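Hey,

Quick one before I head out. I ran the complex with zinc ion overnight. Inputs first:
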Amino acid sequence: MAVRINCSIQNTLTLFNPPLFSLRYRASPLKLKPQFRFGQNFSREVLFCTCATTDITPSNAEPFVITTPLYYVNAPPHMGSAYTTIAADAIARFQRLLGKKVIFITGTDEHGEKIATAALAQGSTPPDHCNLISQSYKTLWKDLDISYDKFIRTTDSKHETIVKEFYSRVLASGDIYRADYDGLYCVNCEEYKDQKELLDNNCCPVHLKPCVSRNEDNYFFALSKYQKALEETLNKNPNFVQPSFRLNEVHLIYEIWISNELQMVQSWIKSGLRDFSISRASVDWGIPVPDDKSQTIYVWFDALLGYISALSDDQEQPDLLKTVSSGWPASLHLIGKDILRFHAVYWPAMLMSAGLTLPKMVFGHGFLTKYLCP
Ligand SMILES: [Zn+2]
């Protein structure tokens, strides 16, 4: 059966990367052979796949689980979110053509101070604001014919249940402790910053806005405990972070943090990787920390779990281990390179602590730039 590979994807790739990139699949009755061509001569050819599409995947075979980031709803979707999602859609469709069972996960990340601030600026409430923006993502994915299977919102009740259960497992592993933290905070990054990484006037290098001084009593995750295990993971599985040159960036993160550790004497730095705060006392718009309603769970410690909670069956009572058995681990997290630290460092350590399997691959793509998309 001849199957036309979604032409809108091709057109969109054309739109995104006109002079540099052409993508063509040579159809074969036996196997698909992708061909990537880089050069100046770009041709708009219609793509066809003539491979057989009979289901060759045994019913008990592992599904191919692909995820986009859960997009932050502080603002409506933009070209960057469409870029990642279209790429994920192309991969999902390709895997389906190979006869695999695919679970394509996307969704929206809806908690945190930045969301509450964005809602206030619009004269709205956080729930109304999240409903509006989340729906705008769904509308765009419909317009772009994105073939996702699961759309998770971090305000879904099943997600909250899974996050709390996960938090309790990490707590039971002895990896959560309470400590004071005094530091500079970028509200837009939703992250404490080291003075060294800031520009003049304590400006965040990403947002070019001044960080604010904060003193909070927070819960911390003992990331430092997983330094060796993470290094071993990267050494044993060089495909874990792709493209391979990004691996150096992850190693660099380790090295920077290690050197910081040597220079900074702070009680919350144990060794190597720096423990990170996983709760906020000053943010109401979030999932409450189990057994401490005065704090909410840090937005990243909440959002990353969406990759698992998305697999939960809506008709059943949410349960972490049962959900994990429905498709976890992810075959591929497709992300922008700016959130590599969270996916290639924080997330695997969190999973190790909870006794869960790591994703098979994290792919950090580059940004759309003016050069590629004038
Ligand atoms: Zn920032």
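The longest helix spans residues 244-263.

Talk tomorrow,
K.
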